[in-house]
Amino acid sequence: MHPAHPLRIFWFSSLVTVIFGIIVATYGGISSLWLFAVLCILEVTFSFDNAVINSRILSRMSKLWQTLFLTIGIFIAVFLVRFALPIVIVQLATGIPFGDVVNMAFNQPERYGEELHKAGPVIEAFGGTFLLMLGISYFLDHEKVVHWLRPIERQLARAGKIRFIKLIFMAIVAALLYLTVEPELKDTVLLSSVLGIALQFGLHSLSVLFEKKFNSVNKAGHLVGWAAFASFMYLEVLDASFSFDGVIGAFAITNSVLLIVAGLGVGAFWVRSLTVYLMRAGTLAKYRYLEHGAHWAILALGVVMLVKLYHVELPEAVTGSLGLVFILTAVVTSVLEKRAEDRKPTAKKAA
């Protein structure tokens, strides 16, 4: 069977889905099974563009680190990012001891959901600026020659020639957030946004530094050693940034923490499998604008998270489908342009 065959890649995610589905249905009935399915779809929808970006980064890593991403990485994604990290955020935001927050999550899920929503500004400022910087970094690359939304992307690429333009742009964003949010949120938003910017810039810079200065590349041209580790950590932080919104949105569907972890966790398995499929199938090479669409989707999600600081909240269905719209449009555009190019030689021969 070909390494990129869907059955070879998605069988484990399918098995995990069936096992957890049976467990959920056994203990919670059909209603819980339905909520479980909705949460899985929510996670995949929110993280589809994440899978596209992950596949590009993962394709540059050695097989060992690809395996670590799919094993240790999935443990981090399910148990740390979607369960432990929200608890830590609630603890830091409220000052409630970690053990009490865990007890609250299991025994007082409604209160836990309320406290998590109260911690929203921390999550939105951090995740929004992290994703915004990730997206804008792609378009401010002055060496990028393929442009999808050409009038906009060409101007951004030209602007990328200005030294430190990404940091200047994000510093302006952080300053605007600080000056315009509610007074009681100013310090929280500033600290969270600066942390998001610093983490994105730091992890990316470390990966480049290790690759160029310490020759952390094997004979096949794949990242190994510290460069691969930096990319691995970058992927995990990126996954966390995408998952925050899903975790908060999940409490609008159910207050059961275990059901949320199960649904979003199984969704995370599907996102990892989708990442592998896109990488092995060479999807980014087949659709030249797919990566562009994914980064526009990331920019859009970053903006959506930041405007929540001003109590502007779009429905979950709109937020989740926003990324899919960009990606599907990019795929369609890629296909149409490829067909037009293929017809040109035929037309010349006919003439």
Number of H/I helices? 14
In angstroms, what is the radius of gyration? 21 Å
Largest beta sheet, briefly? none
* Mean pLDDT over the full residue set: 84
Q: How many β-strands, per DSSP?
A: 0
In terms of DSSP E residues, the strand content is under 5%
Spans where pLDDT lies below 50 across 5 or more residues: none
**What overall geometry do the principal axes of the alpha carbons give?**
globular
Number of domains: 1
Structural class: mainly alpha
Q: H/E element string?
A: HHHHHHHHHHHHHH
Distance between the termini: 44 Å
What does this protein look like?
This protein has 351 residues and is mostly helical. It has one domain (7-338). The chain is 81% helix and 0% strand. The protein has 14 helices and no strands. It is globular and about 65 Å long.
